[in-house]
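Example 3.2
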Amino acid sequence: LMIRRPPRSTLFPYTTLFRSDTIGQDTYTIFFDIASSSIGVAIIRCRKNKPAQIFFHTRVQIKYNSERRSENLAKYLSEAILSAGNLALKAFSKLKIHHKGYEIITLVHPPWINSLSFKTAGKLQKEMKITKDILKSFLEKQISRTPYPDDSRYQLPQHITRIELNGYQTNNPYDKTSDTISITTLRSSMNVIIYKSLINSFDKIFPNHTVTVDSFLLAIIKMQDVFKDSNAFTHIDIGGEYTSIHIINEGRILASESLGFGTEYLVRAVSSDNSPDRVRALSDIKMYMDGMCTPSQCRKIESLLVKTNEEWVKDFGDTCMRSEERRVGKECRSRCS
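Structure, written as tokens:
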């Protein structure tokens, strides 16, 4: 699966997350999608047993300069969050909503966040009915044996992505009898400086709300039902400044690689740094991709993109090879252990 996020495309694949049988009334969510070069924001209405309804969505560009230390990156991110949040609040105030309550959900893409899968398995003392307390105790013991690889980063709450009892996957483990348990979890972390800046920015815009921050990969893993014919798939996330490749199997990330390339590299290849040229470059690239340019226009754009395209093909191929090598190596280690 390849998910591309053009400047105006904000919502897929997230709308499927906002559909729940447990929702008893209309609820509203201000949803943020923090990518490598821009921040998407949307106002979503959730209804019981119905698809989500989108009232507003847009993207705000993250404005970088040459300084790329953590403090500088945190500042660039904060400015974009404040801008996107204010746009969302203005749009929300114009909606004719009887109640003004809403929740705030934020999904974060690499390179802002790092996500890893951990699979733990063990045998119980005897065969017994599985309860929440048994699962909790089992998970706590396993986590103590597999600590986070980097305790200097801020650790987000982990998520269980797969449970197996007696070797069989189940979505409802409670009251089932088993003597073995296998649990796969997703653990995500962020640079402490950047995470604090992110939270402080949301506090400024939404002082009376709790903000849920999670990994974009959680949304992808939760979409496992889209791939009904296969438990394994490769996800390629092409952002503005950054592209990440993830091989996922049975709710577990087998391999994760990234490269410093995105759609903004194409824009810069056909424009200078000033804003009017950037807007024109976006228009020219869209016209080129839609096949609407004249032969002379197409030749000009192609000549500007040749070098960037060659670099992209080489880097992308090398990254895919590393992903496959890591996947094979991890599967081998799993079988040997």
